[in-house]
Amino acid sequence: MKKLFLLTLMHSCIGFSLTFAQTPTPRSLEAKRTNKPVIIDGKLNDLAWQDAAIADDYTEFRPTAGRKEEKGNHTETYLMYDDAGIYFGGTCFERNVDSIAKELSGRDGFGTNDYIGLIFDTYNDKLNGFEYFLTPLGEQWDAKMTSNQNSNNGGEDFSWNAVWQSAVVIHDKGWSFEMFLPYAAIRFSKDKVQNWGLNITRRRRKTEQQYTWNPIDPNVNGFLTQEGQWKGISDIKPPLRLQLFPYFSVYANHFPTDAANQKNWTNQVSGGLDLKLGLNQAFTLDATLIPDFGQVQSDNQVLNLTPFEVKFNEYRSFFTEGTELFNKGNLFYSRRIGGTPINLYDAYDDVKANERMLRNPSESKLINASKISGRTKSGLGVGLLNAVTQAQFATIENIETGEIRKFETNPTTNYNLFVLDQTLKNNSSVSFVNTSVLRGGNEYNANVSAALFSFYDKKNTYNLAGSASLSHLKYKTPDSENSLGYSHTLSFGKNSGRFNYHLSQALTDEKYTSNDLGYFTNNNFINHNLHVGYRYTEPKGWYNRLFLNFNAGLSNLYTKIGEIDSKYQNSRFNANINAQTKKLIWFGAFANYNPAQNDFYEPRTMGKVFRRGGSVAFGGWIESNSAKKYSVNAEVVERVFLNFYKLSGFDVFLAQNYRFNSKFSVGLQLGFQPRPRGLGYTTTLDDGNTLFAIRKVSTIDNVLNLKYNFTNKMGLTFRARHYMSVVDNKEFFTLNNDGSLSPKTGLTEKYNRNVNYFNIDMVYTWQFAPGSFLNVVWKDAGVMSSEIANTRYFDNFQNTLQSDQNNNLSIKVIYFLDYLQLKRKI
Predict the structure, then answer these.
(1) β-pairing verdict for 140-146 and 156-157
(2) In the 8-state DSSP scheme, what is residue 533?
(3) Which of 108, 128, 637, 682 has the greatest CB tally within 10 Å of its CB?
(4) d(Cα 771, Cα 185) in Å, to the nearest integer?
(5) Measured in whole angstroms, how far is the alpha carbon of residue 56 from the centre of its chain?
(6) How many domains in the chain?
């Protein structure tokens, strides 16, 4: 171990000196102003373009870093500005027009497209940026960009949307484009003269070549850290940013309750307003008044056999757009707001023998939500989010008298999140995060505070990062004791160069929790992790890129539990290889070894442990060139336990997509998880014993996607999902105090489970004006659950379709109103 550490240190120092010596000087572009009119039609024939600065001489960074563009497939772009906004235009040349990859995928839909992208770092801090992309068929993408490469999409938040103009023309030499970004579509300071970070990127999907105006070294950490400069922007003023998004919606819902006092058909007509208000040049207020999230995509519900809560994706645009500040420290799980009432299941326990449950909503109703976010000239980012949900009640009926009573499942609740994030030199930052949940009635309040730091050296090679958090639960009843918990993380790593490593520690005591406004599974642990990787980013032989890495981890309890004599939880060792071939096919393989472990969570009872045997796993995956009409993505994993009840598991994932033309495509995803011999918690018996079972678990997850886009402003999508999971228990055991299992016989109940979910989401979208949309959505949901362990897929599929279906049809109109445009018209 000592020799390995010294070798790592020597390699790091050598890499540091090489990086120091080879750091290129960033390119710069003079900011030029025009006073001539521009018509955004994609043709670049306006006289104003003669005033623009030329940005050309692009450099490839994938797959061959440092190579210049070929003549005939090169890029010429132009950049200028006036009092109203920024103009960006140019031509992406192609020797053969058939080489242009193009697909209508909808706004921010990606698809299989070439693109041109403009990236601004308006505060020149190399940490935060704005991106604007355009495809050959004129579809727009935009995103906020941060230096946090570990966040979703590597630091790109594509849920953020701005309203801007663009046009594209395809011709015999390639495709030309024009963009106009009004100053309302970007954030910047009010300095008289400004310098912005700048880069421009172009991607050719059929060859997977990607170019940038300022060269990018794939071995150097970060994209914004390698930007160029747009210099001398003068006399531009941040405008008054007031944008309104009034909406009107109509819903019709059918569910066959067949109850005397409940209707099968219900309907709802509502209206509301979202607004964006620029409080100053840096900060924006976003608010949703009378929110309506009825058209969001259905959740991927599953049968959860684990001891931990399922984490669902967030589809509500208010909680996904522009939330990069709020995700600092991973303390914010937005599904808590308007989520499951905290006393949902207590309501069922409160139903008496002569009563029945009529209604028990599974979600709390959001009254309103608002957020303020932005960053000052000095690099201080401030975020404040507040949301209020109304009290939620279950409705219980007396069967004999018909009397109705209410049971409160969730009190009126206020959710608050506050973030301060100060950027520092060398891509570094320090942050403070506070979350609080204030509940009415006698329910407890929760508060979490965290301090975070991330420090890089001058050459962006080494990183030291960490966090420290305190959680506080305050109870309102005299017989409950308040709880104060602590958690921290600490890591050091080398992020640039071919050789990378990362060492980290995470510690959380037995009282810490951030679950009231975050996603938190368990506490009481101290974990140590090691990551070592080597990457080949220069194409050679058969590959374009090749990545090798090794991971290891050790987890122990922070504090012993009860009479259990060990703090050891688990350890793991993992080796991976990932590569892209010259034919643009990605593939990977891995091997994993998990020694025997003490599982303190599977028993579902504090103070008990399940001693799980060691296991090995092998797997691989392959992903074909997505630019072709037919593409496939497949993954296979096999896990075998060593001398432990002959357990085994097998996972198969297969995704296929066929693109008929630029408008129509079909995708099919299949997940198949056969577990012929699994072992896990089943139930807790009346005598207090914990029951385990060897079981056969068969899970299939089938998703069909259809997409047809009529134009770059209008499209239709269809998504159907059927999920089936069947648990067939074979042998039963009771859990002993030492963590071992003893056979259990004489049970009359098999505790089998057969759970099916079926959902359809069909969406028609028409952007009839900039920022304005008409959405028509049909949603269908069906659930089938039984104790019959029937593993025949089509039997379960048919039974699910024949179950009571909840059908919902909605029409929603969102209209975009901009104060400055209205003022000019008046």
Answers:
(1) antiparallel
(2) E
(3) 128
(4) 12
(5) 34
(6) 1
Rounded to 5 degrees, φ, ψ at 312 are -100, 155
310 close to 684: Cβ distance less than 8 angstroms: no
- The one-character DSSP state at 321 is T
Task: Tell whether 517 is covered by a domain.
Answer: no
Distance CA 544, CA 63 (A): 6
Pairing of strands 193-204, 228-234: antiparallel
Contacts of 50 (CB under 8 A, 6+ apart): none
* pLDDT tens, residue by residue, 647-663: 999 999 999 999 999 99
Give the list of residues 6+ apart from residue 653 with CB closer than 8 angstroms, or none. 633, 634, 635, 636, 669, 670, 671, 672
Cis amide leading into 743 (omega within 30): no
Task: Decide if 19 is inside a domain.
Answer: no
Q: Are 188 and 194 in contact (CB under 8 A)?
A: yes
Closest to 370 in 3D by CA, of 430, 409, 322: 322
**d(C-alpha 763, C-alpha 66), whole Å:** 43
Q: How far apart are CA 397 and CA 354, in angstroms?
A: 9
Can you say whether the dihedral through the CA atoms of 17, 18, 19, 23 is positive or negative?
A: positive
Q: Residues 710-719: what's their mean pLDDT?
A: 96
pLDDT of 5 higher than 50: no
* More confidently predicted of 232 and 152: 232
- Encode pLDDT of 203-259 as tens digits: 999 999 999 999 999 999 889 999 999 999 999 988 888 999 999 999 999 998 766
**pTM as predicted:** 0.91
Residue 568 is assigned to a structural domain of this protein: no
Scored b (16 or more CB within 10 A) or e, 477-506 reads: eeeeeebebbbbbebebbbbbebbbbbbeb
Helices (H) and strands (E) in the chain, counts: 5, 45
Check: CB of residue 710 under 8 Å from CB of residue 633. no
Q: Which of 759, 789, 798 is nearest to 777 (CA)?
A: 759
Q: In 3D, which of 396, 459, 391, 381 has the Cα closest to residue 425?
A: 459
Q: Whole-angstrom Cα distance, residue 194 to residue 231? A: 7
Q: How far apart are CA 251 and CA 825, in angstroms?
A: 34
Alpha helices in 515-637 (DSSP H): none
CATH number at residue 58: 2.60.40.1190
DSSP 204-259: ETTTTEEEESS---TTSS-SGGG-EEEEEEES--PPP-EEEEEEEEEEEEE-----
The string of DSSP codes covering 644-705 is STT-EEEEEEEEEEEE-SSSEEEEEEEEEEEEEEEEEEEEE-TTSPEEEEEEEEEEEEEEEE
Cα angle for residues 638, 753, 257 (degrees, 5° grid): 130
Residue whose structure tokens are 């024949």: 802
404 found inside a domain: no
Question: Distance (Å, rounded) from C-alpha 164 to C-alpha 639?
Answer: 50
The residue count of the chain comes to 826
Are residues 352 and 375 in contact, defined by beta-carbon separation less than 8 angstroms?
no
- CA angle, residues 461, 465, 469, in degrees to nearest 5: 170
**Mean pLDDT value across residues 408-428:** 95
Average pLDDT, the chain: 92
Owning domain of residue 137: 26-234
Phi first, then psi, for residue 67 (nearest 5°) are -80, 140
Q: Are 73 and 56 in contact (CB under 8 A)?
A: no
pLDDT 10s digits, 56-109: 999 999 999 999 999 999 999 999 999 999 999 999 999 999 999 999 999 888
